[in-house]
Design goal:
Number of helices: 3
Number of strands: 13
Keywords: Signal
Largest sheet: 13 strands, mixed
Strand content: over 45%
Distance between the termini: 58 Å
Protein name: Outer membrane protein beta-barrel domain-containing protein
Helix content: 10-25%
Amino acid sequence: MKTTNILSAVILLTVSFSVFGQEQQPKTINKISIHDIYIQTGFFSERNTNGTLSDFKTLAPQSVLLNNNMTDFSQSGGFSLTSNTMFSVMLGLQFSDKQKTIYKANPLLRLGISYFSGTTLTGGLYKEDRKPYDTLTSTQTGQTVYIDSITTKNYSMNYSSEQLRFDGSLIFRTNPEARWSIFTGIGITAGLSINANTDIYYSNYGRTETRYANGNTSSSYGYSSSDNSKTEKFRNKSNFGLSSYIPMGIDFRIGKKKEFWKRTHLFYELRPGINITSIPELRTITNASIQHGLGLRVSWN
């Protein structure tokens, strides 16, 4: 009888410790969890590469304007930058610790899509024709004034496209629980163009210029004719785009008390980077780029 009581006590004690151990075991969580959603709009700016006449003849072989006589035309050059609107939607993913008990605040993986348009390649040619137009001599002073007629012919060429790209970035943020926080990281985009086009513009602009005997010139009067302005547009093959960038920004939590507003944030983000465009008809072009804009972030865990 005594042995039976001791055995029962041992079994009861073992079961009690087993139940206690199960109650104390932490609950495991998923390895990855969707933490927030980002909606952003702003501007995408890209430094343009200067293209040659040969480049644009390759991009637009059916062009009538580019087959005109270009003898004695000079090529326009210099720094040029174009800016266009952009829009992106992304999800923020958090990772659990090794024990799968909590989600780590850093790093956070953002995945989504971005849309923007940009001008990758630009070119320009111009030529000035100067001809004597009139000569005026003052009857009082005898001073002679020369009036020249100047005609300027311009060709402007652009290769541009609309881009729809996969957008991914790894974000590191200061205290996420604070009302204000800053963040940075590294990101990439990759995708295909929706529309790729080559545009050719031609204009013929005339003006008069007054020259004095001492070499000075006066302001001139310009004139142009709509009949001398022409435009051509050609559709190109879809190109492939790739970029790398460094996201940098500041985040502001809107609310302090109500739960919804505590989960809602406004942020400003700047993305300096390198944009690469592979043009099927031509070659791969690399340009410096910068993207910036305002966004809304909503978290739900």
